[in-house]
């Protein structure tokens, strides 16, 4: 049966994670996979989440099935977090969400529902994007189209070319957008660019499919939601895939949700029934643990407050590391400008060095970076910054 199968190369980001773990050098640095690390290089469980976990142990009375939509309280609180509890869309009846196994599970359910609704729709994905977007969403059967997003030379959004390309998107197609903290570039849309894309969506009739996996890691919880909230206000249809992996540190608990904004409340009911039947046909029901923790953290005023300040600490640490790395590389022998790193948002930015420089960093200095030169700024800390800077200065000579 399996004799015709060929081995598949491991995903580049996850492969790097394995290679890093296998490296015995003490001074090694992991700037690969998008996981938060504190100043000691650890990825701790947030204290608010730990406390919720302790409380859950006390009150949890069953591990019975929860159903395809997951925990209703989680779904409700996630909508408030994503859109803000005062957003008029929440009272409209036009918005519905279900819990999903992480942001990836949310993207998959969203894509399957779109395929059921309109199989001929194409999906437009910016270049570059998170490398798993194409296999994950393309695997659903979509025809994938691309639009330019980032200019590698200037390290800015390629705004004119992006807008020109979006002007060609036909009605009924989907446009994938990153809610904030763009992965891999760190270059986020400005408010004006978001507004312009909403104008185009209205004019052309395309539907934004927003992937938001880093809310709170860029400029703040509300600030990072600008585009999504504005589009929910202005557009008849929006789809949002969200993840609690990064902002609650719940990576392995696979906690996410998929949200549909539809033209009418009746359509929202139909779409959510399709989402549940989609879930049933893939994984049946989402895992409960992470969602119960998020629901408890968001629902308890003290835990909520504590979580917000922990997330703020994460955000500010990453921002500080951006500044530190950029300043440490000023005056480098190659005369390269790393100023973009200071101003971009969230975990990632491109370093923009060559592949042989990247290889030297890994081979000679134990510094792990994905081949696109995307670095995870959360992997930089006060202990490894000297080794990182010195190594970079050497390979740039
Ligand atoms: C990343 O981009 O590194 C993370 O989102 C982890 C992953 O699954 O690729």
Into which percentage range does the β-strand content fall?
5-15%
Helix content: 40-55%
Outline? globular
| Distinct small molecules bound, one entry per kind | (2S)-2-hydroxybutanedioic acid
Summarize the structure.
This protein has 397 residues and is α/β, with parallel strands linked by helices. The protein has helices spanning 12-22, 47-59, 72-83, 102-117, 133-138, 159-166, 191-204, 226-234, 265-282, 289-299, 301-328, 339-343, 355-365, 385-395, and strands at 29-30, 95-100, 122-127, 143-148, 150-151, 156-157, 174-178, 207-212, 238-243, 256-261, 348-350, 367-368, 374-376. It is globular.
Walk me through what this model shows.
The protein is α/β, with parallel strands linked by helices. The protein has two domains: 125 residues, Aspartate Aminotransferase, domain 1, CATH 3.90.1150; 235 residues, Type I PLP-dependent aspartate aminotransferase-like (Major domain) (Aspartate Aminotransferase, domain 2). The chain is 44% helix and 14% strand. It contains 14 helices and 13 strands. It has a seven-stranded mixed β-sheet, with helices on both faces. Helix 7 runs parallel beside helix 8. The model has no long low-confidence stretch (mean pLDDT 97). (2S)-2-hydroxybutanedioic acid binds next to loops.
Task: Please outline the helices and strands.
Elements: H1 12-22, E1 29-30, H2 47-59, H3 72-83, E2 95-100, H4 102-117, E3 122-127, H5 133-138, E4 143-148, E5 150-151, E6 156-157, H6 159-166, E7 174-178, H7 191-204, E8 207-212, H8 226-234, E9 238-243, E10 256-261, H9 265-282, H10 289-299, H11 301-328, H12 339-343, E11 348-350, H13 355-365, E12 367-368, E13 374-376, H14 385-395
Parallel strand pairs: 1-12, 3-4, 3-7, 7-8, 8-9
Antiparallel strand pairs: 2-10, 5-6, 9-10, 11-13
Helix pairs in contact: 2-10, 2-11, 3-10, 4-9, 7-8, 10-11, 13-14
The structure holds (2S)-2-hydroxybutanedioic acid.
Residues 13, 33-34, 130, 132, 183 line the site of (2S)-2-hydroxybutanedioic acid.
